[in-house]
Amino acid sequence: MNSVEIVIIKNSELQSAELLCDSKNLTITFIMKNGYRKLYAGDNFYICFGHIRQDHSDVIFLCKGAKINVHPSSMSSQMSLGVKAYELTLGKYATRNDLVNIFDYEENNLTNDPEVQRDFFMRWFESEIEED
């Protein structure tokens, strides 16, 4: 089981939280500094993290995985269990340089709603790709 420390904002206070990632059972246990802990399951860690964010609308998760334009491909989900995802830009192909760790720090364009991320992904997928 891997432990990942992330930064969150709760009650306007910057805090750290812990994510215990179990790759055997594809679960994440979310632990806050006040002792709160809850287990989340999904097909991969990106989906588990989405469940955590949906369940805690009062918390801002300062992570790449909460960024509106971050979404895994099916291959990146399978190869990294959803820990790696692409930071997408409308009108541009996603490349290896766009791969990010969903638990890395981020403070811009965040959402707790995975549906917002899916909507962005569909807009990106349907966008006209500029040829270099």
Protein traits:
132 residues, alpha+beta, five-stranded antiparallel sheet, three-stranded antiparallel sheet, 3 helices, 8 strands, globular
Notes on the protein architecture:
The structure is a single chain. The chain has 132 residues and is of the alpha+beta class. It has one domain (2-126). Helix content is 23%, strand content 32%. It contains three helices and eight strands, in the order E-E-E-E-H-E-E-H-E-E-H. The strands form two sheets. Strands 4-3-2-1-5 form a five-stranded antiparallel beta sheet, with helices on one face. The protein has a three-stranded antiparallel beta sheet with strand order 6-7-8. It is globular, with a radius of gyration of 15 Å. The termini are far apart.
Mean model confidence by pLDDT: 95
Could you tell me the radius of gyration in angstroms?
Answer: 15 Å
Strand and helix order = EEEEHEEHEEH
Structural class: alpha+beta
- Main-sheet strand order equals 4-3-2-1-5
The percent range for helix content is 10-25%
> Would you identify the regions where 5 or more consecutive residues have pLDDT less than 50?
none
N-to-C terminal Cα separation, in Å?
Answer: 43 Å
- How many strand segments? 8
Q: Number of DSSP helices?
A: 3
Q: In percent, how much strand structure appears in the residues?
A: 25-35%
The description of the largest β-sheet is: 5 strands, antiparallel
Structural shape: globular
Count of spatially separate domains: 1
